[in-house]
Amino acid sequence: MDTPASNVAELLQQEQNTSGLLRLVTAGSVDDGKSTLIGRLLFESKGIFEDQLEAVQSASTRRGSAGGQLDLSLVTDGLKAEREQGITIDVAYRYFATPRRKFIIADTPGHEQYTRNMVTGASTADLVIILLDARQGVVTQSRRHAFLASLLGIKHMVVAVNKMDLVGYERAPFERIVADFTEFSTRLDVPDVTFIPMSALVGDNVTGRTRNMPWYEGAGLLHHLETVHIASDRNLIDFRFPVQLVSRPDLHFRGYMGTPASGIVRPGQDVVSLPSGVRSRVVRVIGPNGDVPEGFPPMAITLTLADEIDVSRGDVLVHPNNIPRVNDTVEAMVVWMAKDPLIPGKQYVIKHGTRKVPGFAKAIRYRVDVNSLRQHAADALALNEIGRCVLELSRPIVYDAYARNRASGSFIVIDRETHNTVGAGMLLDRERLDPEDAAAAPAPAHAVRPARASHRVSEIERRGRLKQQPLCVWISGTDPADVAAIAYVLERALFDAGMTGYVLRGDDDRCGGDPMRLAESARLLCDAGLFVVCATSTGQQIPGFDRIKQAVGADWMFAVAMGESPAGPPDPDVRLAATLTPEAAVEQVIRSLQGRGWIP
Amino acid sequence: MKHTLTHLAQLEAESIHIMREVVAECENPVMLFSVGKDSAVMLHLARKAFAPGRLPFPLMHVDTSFKFPEMIEYRDRLAKEVGAELIVARNDEALKRVGGPECWSCTMCADILKRQTLVEALIKHKFDAAFGGARRDEEKSRAKERVLSFRDKFQQWDPKNQRPELWNLYNTSHAPGDSFRVFPLSNWTELDVWMYIVQENIPIVPLYYAKARPVIRRDGMLVYAGDIVHPRPGETVEQCTVRFRTLGCQLCTGAVESTADTLEKVVEEVMVARNSERQNRAVDKDREGSMEEKKREGYF
Ligand SMILES: Nc1nc2c(ncn2[C@@H]2O[C@H](COP(=O)(O)OP(=O)(O)O)[C@@H](O)[C@H]2O)c(=O)[nH]1
Questions:
Q1: Which of A535, B48, B60, B175 is in Cβ range 3.0-4.6 Å of A487 for a Cys bridge?
Q2: Which of A123, A105, A183, A554 is nearest to A333 (CA)?
């Protein structure tokens, strides 16, 4: 398996058995040996061609720094202007392969544009190699690289301690670096960190194991790259399908084309289109070679649905029992990439998934100093600065937190005048709505909350167990008995549909007739993942429906008004005629809940 | 089910995603069809991307008039089979002004008959996105090329004015008149392209296969002796078993001696090849960095 294929049949066989593609990004300060390392990887895996090698050879003698020897760092040289200056300033992509795996390296050199380049290269990477000079140990830049890798959600980090030949291949300096780096990296969110002592110049521990460091028991770099397990890094749980194109070649076919951001889709599954909430069922999943039993990332697929529903580019298809956030006020870590700074209030276009929406930064909560990782107050974000921003969008987007879902949690910022890409953002889970936001933002539909402060079980997990999403149906009417009757019929109907929940009555003694206490109880039940039906009637003093909604949680609230009760919500999700029987009223409520994707 | 894709399937998916995205967001895309193996793969991917619908864009071929007849035959047959509109951009005016093939050097041909013709055609048809089959592993200066390569009103490429590309979020916004070259095969290597041709059984121009052909040895290259290139005094036409590793004009595309007359043999030759593929194209050999200069001016 490890010998290169010698004919086409073997090659195709290998293709079936290899572990696919690994995308990696390299980071290091100037002169740590990054170019030499990449040059060696390409050279030894035959990733460079002989005529390129000749060019490198002649250039080595002309201006190489390896004393006329073959200077492998020249292999990765790029554009002419940069060559003349002897520096590289942009991301370059290199390719090499072994019988086990194919590799794409994003080579992101240092200097002023550092953050922008590394963030660009890291955005698609599965793994990051951080180079250190064994003589210098962990320096400021190393911390910066590690922080950026963690910010961009890279799960695998290799700390390549280079130039071990210059410290006599000794164990002590290596161990010191491991300790220093670990102390710092445990604060980051990178689950897999591997340290490898090496010499890129001599070739120790790059493509093979070396005898110069018998004390090191781990694998060489290439072996590690070939075997590191990345398949489980993908999110195959939360199905998110941003519709890219609607295909209607003739009257008989209507397909939704796109690449799932995450999750798996199969024929026969129910889906909800967001933000509209319209439901349908998947009929066919079509891959590049025809129908397939399953679609998953990064496949480019086409779905057909059972109903002719109104779905267009930018909408997201999801499973009804696993709903992402839908919101027009979002928080994100934003990396700024343009000379003109990000200024709160200035209008930009946000491209998220397949949707473009106008929006602006409402506030910059803080800026992170990438060197010290300290947070500072900021009125603007300059080129290469990173900050936590509150963004207000003119239409809602359908998203997840970047930490949970790279593809549905990322966006780019486009300047409206220059059309350039000026920023990159990673969406965050918001702990709670600011009072100010809550007043300004319309009720976000079906948003998912993270686990509350001390809870270790998240809302997502509760949903997974209960197969439902929390829901508060707040019924208000004039007659307490009528309202209660409807509440109990609704409870029965939801229960019979497989859901778990409870009725709370405003006239119950435990609430002391106080709707705010009722709202708080409802919130606890929703927090626990249940549905709750609240029955309230006039005669009770009402503090204003907005306060109730906020107390329950705007995400969970579904308001039902019977007749024209003055105490009810001014703008209910459903208004029932006062003359309906409880059964007919509940039927109408259920239909409406289904229509909005609250229940299957 | 382990829910993983082979690396070719991953590359295929990425290319399809890119094409769909550009078609969704750009107003008037076109596919540059150079008739080589990379365009063959690109066209194959495009058909998959938009199936069961038809190609949502025309194909355009920049024809210097010095191409091999096999290329033209293949081009016309394929366009018909695909049911795509085929635009042939040809600078008849320049050809008339300058004269027959003997009046053209490779550099002039590349500059006027290819670059200028392409640029003029793109402007004339108001295309705002042009798919090309170039790959990043082809040449040193391409390593930093974006998937969406921004061009100004003059179709010029400014290395300093390229946009960062993050995740798979491509920014197709542009002012009227500006446009993009789009390279859906950016992340494919030469071997990937060949393996995919084998896997998918994609027909390619027969010139890629070895056959006894009349050639002239000129400047260290084997040049095809057909209607276009004739022996100069002192040169002789030899019958050699050769094939072409890249396809272009008869003037500046060199043949290599080879016995690889089947797809399998060709791929096996590529597997052991020690020379990068463009070496036999005289146009690149001018001097170090030459491709980059051509690219700045709008040549591929
Ligand atoms: N002794 C020694 N020198 C190295 C090693 N790796 C790189 N160098 C040298 O360090 C210098 C900078 O290397 P280069 O690859 O250009 O660094 P970059 O700026 O990180 O790309 C060059 O002179 C290399 O020859 C190593 O492992 N040992």
A1: A535
A2: A123
